[in-house]
Amino acid sequence: MVHRIEPTMGGVRWIETNKEPVYIDKGASPKAEYDLIVIGAGYCGLSVALQAAKQGLSVALLEAGTVGCGASGRSGGFVVPHFPGGLTADDLIKPFGKARAERLAALIAGGPSYVFDLIREHDIKCDPEQPGWIQPAHSTKSLKRVKKAYNSWRNRGVDVEWLNAAALHERTGASGYVGGWYRSTGGTVNPYALALGLARVVSDQGVHIREGAAVTSIRRDGAAQIVTSEAGEYKAQKVAITTNGYTPALYPGLQQSVIPLRLYHVMTRPLLDNERGVTMPSRIPFTDLRKSGGFIRLDVENRVVSGGAVFNAGNQPAYGKHHAQARIAEIFPQLKGIEIEHYWEGYCALTDAFLPAIQQLDHNVYSVVGFSTRGVALTQTLGREMALFLAEKKTADEMPVRVCPVERIFMQGTKQLLGGLAFPVFQARDALGLT
32, 73, 325, 434: most buried, per Cβ within 10 A? Predict the structure, then answer.
């Protein structure tokens, strides 16, 4: 999947508002051997590298493109204290067991606080805002699932607040929502700037970061692993692959263990003064359960940010812009016809369970995949846990997700193909109130 990498990030608006220095790869010579090689310099790889270095490991971080050029720098920058969609910890108890389900729930609940604390600690200039996050219900059917999520968190002692339709409208200015829940820890960032800031911190920890180093093979050499890349060979005792939707076929079944989902984001023109007072007056971002895109935030310039899944037919940008414009007008009627000034695409990664997975590929070689649109926080917290596992400070039994062999997704290729053609179906189901 290396062909998906586009290191120049053409069209991604976050580059224009970024305040962090762009990472400069000075081509420093690598060590003869490392304790750990991490593949992929997105949030997950950066987090694994940072925390492993803090545990005393020598670390090299190899990136096929440039730091943050994949899903991390192309995302919407939502820092969300919740599972994907309507999933709850209660849904995981049967397949995962209560102890592991609760560990993962605690990891997700604490994710935004961890991210914003890290930003403050290292003064990462990524326009962080922490006004909270809302999961609103757009239909009677979705209201039941949203209320279930709220109750699941409340029953675990998490500080969540239920909002009726009037309270939700007061905080967001949005129309059509019938209720929802709020948590104060959520927020937003400039996602590209956050990746660059993390790279700065990682480099300061002594991690060797190498861009333009697409990995082509990994082979065992006694107890060690030899990683061959376009920038040369690296030797390490352990390897962590954190490439998600850009994962190459380095091991049998690895590419088939995840479904890359192509997403797009848009930004409108900046809101006018008279629009600001009635459009997200509290600046709280929100994400509903619509599969055809029901997420909204403001950026630092008061542009509305939204998006959805790319429909792989016809003129994709025109289709995406038209849909986003219509969805924004549906939620904020006062913005009907607002100009869409920026459009870009990228890939996230899904598993069948819509939850991340840690896979053991070989002796001391692991992959972490599948953050399912919750990547800003979950990649970093699970990356921290992965580093503790690699540093042998946690066992596999203590991890918040299972450490398993490669698990191929049944009919992965077909699901990936259909995923690129399903957006009109999502739109129809949402319009009929079936989600």
Answer: 73
